[in-house]
Inverse folding.
């Protein structure tokens, strides 16, 4: 089923793109991640230009976040005040990210920057996940860590102008979540990811948020920031391929259902180990892609 992608300016197998979306959807259902941090690299491996892959993948993340936000909202698992602050920071970060994206496009370095960012991020995240999974497997799934009192980082306590975030159980400066959202906004614009794999740990261990609202608040931020970045890409970089985004979204919606069913039966530590192995394999493949000389050294892009 050949499908023409107008922005990418190439024909692809539509079934394979839907299948790719389904794979990331399964990962989303299995591991509780948006899958955006794997969608973009896999699209690049398939031959989609990195700029188009990063811009179009954010649309898939937006669609995948809607149902999650609604589900968490029904059980009171979203801190809307905290979410609004992080969304504000994320949108501001996306504006700066759009400027960086255009600047790197102008100097012809955007593709290499996207690849390097993914190698660094996937390598670090995959390594930490693998270490944690192996430690859990060796301990036969028993909890070996002592229960740690939830507390925000000392640097957060030093920031001025504190607000109360009741659902998160915090009394901290809004500058901290705003800055966190700002960083996620830049990464979303440059890499086409939702940023949940960074946002959730940061909310837990840096801001010290209550665990029962972290995932819902993270999805709330991701939903609106990925919407904003998709619009900015469409208006500034013109790199969003609506056909590609639609095929990915179709596959991810179907795949997430299967992933959720599998997750209910599998052991969590085994799932984390598998995800860590997948992430590290993708990072290794991207390292190889950076090191090997491409078939076409020069490319011509419209001004």
């Amino acid at each position: 089923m050949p499908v023409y992608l107008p922005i990418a300016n190439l024909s692809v197998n539509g079934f394979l793109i839907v299948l790719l979306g389904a794979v990331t959807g399964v990962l989303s259902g299995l591991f509780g991640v948006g899958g955006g941090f794997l969608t973009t690299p896999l699209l690049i491996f398939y031959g989609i230009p990195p700029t188009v892959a990063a811009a179009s993948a954010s649309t898939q993340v937006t669609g995948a976040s809607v149902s999650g936000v609604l589900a968490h909202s029904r059980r009171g698992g979203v801190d809307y005040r905290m979410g609004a602050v992080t969304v504000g920071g994320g949108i501001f970060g996306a504006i700066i990210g759009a400027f960086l994206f255009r600047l790197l496009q102008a100097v012809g370095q955007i593709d290499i920057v996207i690849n390097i960012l993914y190698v660094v991020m996937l390598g670090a995240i995959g390594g930490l996940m693998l270490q944690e999974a192996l430690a859990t497997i060796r301990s036969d799934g028993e909890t070996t860590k002592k229960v740690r009192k939830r507390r925000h980082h000392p640097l957060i306590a030093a920031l001025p102008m504190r607000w109360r975030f009741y659902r998160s159980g915090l009394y901290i400066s809004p500058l901290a979540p705003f800055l966190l959202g700002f960083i996620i906004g830049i990464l979303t614009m440059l890499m086409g990811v939702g940023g949940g794999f960074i946002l959730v740990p940061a909310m837990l261990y840096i801001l010290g948020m209550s665990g029962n609202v972290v995932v819902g608040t993270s999805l709330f931020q991701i939903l609106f920031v990925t919407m904003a970045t998709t619009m900015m890409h469409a208006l500034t970089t013109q790199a969003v391929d609506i056909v590609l985004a639609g095929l990915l979204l179709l596959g991810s919606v179907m795949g997430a259902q299967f992933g959720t069913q599998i997750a209910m039966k599998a052991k969590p530590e085994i799932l984390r180990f598998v995800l860590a192995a997948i992430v590290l394999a993708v990072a290794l493949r991207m390292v190889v892609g950076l090191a090997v000389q491409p078939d076409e050294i020069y490319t011509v892009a419209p001004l």
Observations:
- The chain has one domain: 2-144+156-291.
- The two ends are 32 Å apart (CA to CA).
